């Protein structure tokens, strides 16, 4: 649910009429990217504020019944077609490309799939896979192979050299403030991961259990790259108190508004940076 910070920034960009030609979304970022490419400002915040408390949206009963805490069938079904319609036509006709990161269960490595590389119905399955957090969601099968959340293979964001296209001016939207660092994975979590995936997908176990170290290393490198002017970073200005499965709509609204304000405030600075040689 921390993706609402990203939604706020992207809504600010849409209000300014600005669209990146290439967008990368990993995990919840994939969902934010969908409504950005389809040119639907306000859609993501509407979905989350309206449905976060709704039992159809997420909850333990969905985990027990369908294998996923988040009810993707509802999100990409009735919600996207009736309640808060997704503009499939605009998305398909957009000149911009969305690349979504997923993690190969066998290798533990990230794979990027382009919105231009497959039919939209299949691409939506890729987005579901990118949000399928191990233990909270079952792996998603795509063309005979199983995948999980893109953040397992690619914590935080990809560096320029890891992107599926050349990029000399990367803009990163992070959902944690500059002081945030992940704590080491507790022993109990490692045991749970081994029990759930150890026999079938040991690479997923290794990936999940090493996320804190890889994430924290990336944070330090991004801070250094930012100082050197190699990347432009948009992030919250204070610690975020919103959980992954947050249902408090006041907290969600505040996080979205913070993203929107930062997006508006730093837009001109970002455009100047992007125009520099």
Automatic annotation (TrEMBL):
A motif (DGA/G) lies at residues 149-151. It holds the Pfam family Patatin. The keyword Coiled coil does not apply. GO terms for biological process: lipid catabolic process. Keywords: Hydrolase, Lipid degradation, Lipid metabolism. PROSITE patterns: PNPLA (PS51635). The active site is at residues 27, 149. GO terms for molecular function: hydrolase activity. A motif (GXSXG) lies at residues 25-29. Gene3D superfamilies: Cytosolic phospholipase A2 catalytic domain. Residues 1-165 form the PNPLA domain. Signal peptide: none annotated. This is Patatin family protein. It comes from Dialister hominis.
């Amino acid at each position: 649910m921390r993706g609402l910070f990203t939604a706020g920034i992207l809504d600010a960009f849409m209000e300014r009429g600005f669209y990146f030609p290439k967008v990368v979304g990993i995990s919840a970022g994939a969902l934010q990217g969908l409504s950005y490419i389809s040119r639907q400002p306000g859609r993501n915040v509407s979905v989350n504020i309206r449905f976060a408390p709704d039992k159809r949206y997420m909850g333990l009963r969905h985990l027990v019944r369908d294998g996923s805490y988040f009810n993707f069938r509802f999100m990409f079904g009735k919600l996207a077609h009736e309640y808060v319609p997704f503009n499939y036509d605009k998305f398909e006709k957009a000149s911009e490309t969305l690349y979504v990161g997923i993690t190969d269960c066998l290798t533990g490595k990230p794979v990027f799939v382009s919105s231009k590389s497959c039919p939209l119905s299949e691409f939506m399955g890729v987005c579901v896979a990118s949000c399928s957090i191990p233990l909270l969601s079952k792996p998603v099968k795509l063309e005979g192979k199983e995948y999980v959340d893109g953040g397992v293979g690619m914590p935080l964001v990809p560096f320029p050299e890891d992107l599926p296209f050349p990029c000399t001016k990367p803009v990163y939207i992070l959902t944690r403030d500059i002081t945030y660092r992940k704590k080491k994975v507790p022993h109990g979590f490692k045991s749970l991961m081994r029990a759930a995936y150890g026999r079938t997908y040991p690479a997923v176990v290794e990936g999940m259990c090493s996320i804190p170290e890889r994430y924290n290393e990336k944070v330090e490198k991004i801070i250094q790259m930012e100082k050197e002017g190699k990347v432009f970073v948009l992030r919250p200005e204070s610690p975020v108190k919103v959980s992954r499965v947050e249902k408090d709509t006041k907290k969600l609204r505040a996080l979205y508004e913070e993203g929107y304000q930062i997006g508006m405030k730093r837009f001109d600075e970002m455009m100047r940076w992007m125009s520099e040689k």
